[in-house]
């Protein structure tokens, strides 16, 4: 991502309805994984650290981030509560393989040119029986200049993510779309951005409090469905992956 994108993320991820809702959804999904009480958790591509407090509900959290600006912002934001190291996936990982019960790639895989190498690397970081949690943006036909601004390499479909997991010799335990309820609004806005050639996505900033809270409430209700079932469409994808 560009430095401007990281600064924007640092300003918005604590309060923006999308970041808040995604954390709510992922916390519900993680609650169903039966992680050990002292689980060791790694987030690869932790950005400015917005997911770390949520992940800490489930164990001891470490993180790796390649961008110096994001790394510094994350350390400042979290007050040194987590072991956040400089590194790059898949070729410069600062943690030993076989060290973690859970490895998270949350909005990360789409930034990495060698996504099969990155997923394989994440799997090799796992202890026996561990899991990789992945979230990515969905639908290549929604590609816009905003994806370029964020330094995305691609967007995914359910089929392409399943194919990636299979190519790496891993097992897909679960896959689902999410951000479903608001997808008609989001798709309309993104297609409008495409037509206008906008480099900044409509709605990237935090909206007025009442609107922000309403969008968060609606988006986060998806956690109730995702606690036990999958959603058939949405502008994001999540997957739980394990070694075969």
What does this 3D model show about the protein?
- It contains 10 helices and 7 strands.
- It starts with a helix and ends with a strand.
- The protein has one domain (about 5-244): Vaccinia Virus protein VP39 (Rossmann fold), CATH 3.40.50.150.
- By secondary structure, the chain is of the alpha/beta class.
- Keywords: Methyltransferase, S-adenosyl-L-methionine, Transferase.
- It comes from Cupriavidus yeoncheonensis.
- One of its GO terms (molecular function) is S-adenosylmethionine-dependent methyltransferase activity.
- It holds the Pfam family Methyltransf_11.
Q: Keyphrases for this structure?
A:
244 residues; alpha/beta; Rossmann fold; seven-stranded mixed beta sheet; 10 helices; 21% strand; globular; Methyltransf_11; Methyltransferase type 11 domain-containing protein
Element layout with pairings:
Blueprint: H1 3-12, H2 17-31, E1 40-44, H3 52-55, E2 60-65, H4 68-78, E3 83-86, E4 100-106, H5 115-124, E5 126-137, H6 145-149, H7 158-167, E6 170-178, H8 183-196, H9 209-220, H10 222-226, E7 236-243
Keywords: Methyltransferase, S-adenosyl-L-methionine, Transferase
Domain Methyltransferase type: 42-133
Pfam families: Methyltransf_11
